[in-house]
Specification:
eight-stranded parallel barrel, binds NADP nicotinamide-adenine-dinucleotide phosphate
Length: 301
Amino acid sequence: MKRIRLSQRGPEFSRIVFGTWRVLDTGANAQEINRRLHACVELGMTTIDTAEIYGLYEVEQALGAALALSPGLRDKLEIVTKAGIYVPCPQRPGCRTAYYNATGPQLIRSLDESLRLLGTDRVELFLVHRPDWLTRADDTAAGLNELLREGKIRAAGVSNYSASQFELLSAQMEQPLATNQIEFHLLHPEPIHDGTLHQCEKLGVAPMAWSPLAGGRIFDPANPAAVRLAAAAESMADRYNGAKLEQLAYAWILAHPAHPLPVIGTNNLERLRAAAESDSIVLEREDWFALWEAAQGRKIP
Ligand SMILES: NC(=O)c1ccc[n+]([C@@H]2O[C@H](COP(=O)([O-])OP(=O)(O)OC[C@H]3O[C@@H](n4cnc5c(N)ncnc54)[C@H](OP(=O)(O)O)[C@@H]3O)[C@@H](O)[C@H]2O)c1
């Protein structure tokens, strides 16, 4: 698996990242999660994406338990976590309604708790999960800057920020933001046009692309875009060693000149291996556009 430096002073990550949002969906225990992490390391997919809210605040603890089973495993991985989204659930008694909080003190409290749950003393990347409409950028930056100075986070970044939100926060940072983790895939190509990918390219910041298979919707036979994509993928598979739709969907993201890193969500080991192979697929220009047209159901302008 190829590797990429997220930004000039940012960490080096695997080109494809293993996402853990759904890791508890199949009832996996610590042993099973430990097996998946080892499989990731064997495939060179050493970067693991998580967040405090995943599994309603239970995934980080499960990851910590899985890491504790193999001393040394943590040091083979780059860990990304995020903070700032709070929703009512049994793990957050007293929380009446969903809200965002990206104030400096909250980010510091959250990161400290994430480190405790993961059983580690630092993460390679810490992201503000969503822009908090009620918090000034200097307040958010103060928390991130303090965590950077203390060495608890190797780099700071954001997720789901618009280009202007990214620029506003960047101006307050002592170390440049290392990424913007955004929704970008065949069924959501908007970042190509809304300025977020242009900004990443201009700043030399590799974005992270979440839900690269649209959370599985690109396989939904009831979705006309998925049906068109399946046909398009079949028509070009021979040119790519029989590649499957999911592999072509990852390659479609990887081909963008801003160098996005797909953050994948499968719990299936065979699909994990197929994902790892897709970083060697270089889509021909015409096939990239053919996939765009199939997804959009229209010709390019
Ligand atoms: N920053 C953010 O706001 C944000 C938001 C959402 C997600 N994320 C990150 O992105 C990661 C990935 O998100 P995601 O899980 O939505 O990604 P995804 O890779 O787009 O979707 C994964 C889903 O697709 C299914 N799938 C994969 N291959 C399939 C196939 N060939 N046929 C049918 N279904 C298939 C998987 O099921 P199987 O497990 O059975 O393969 C799984 O349910 C998350 O884990 C998280 O780390 C970040």
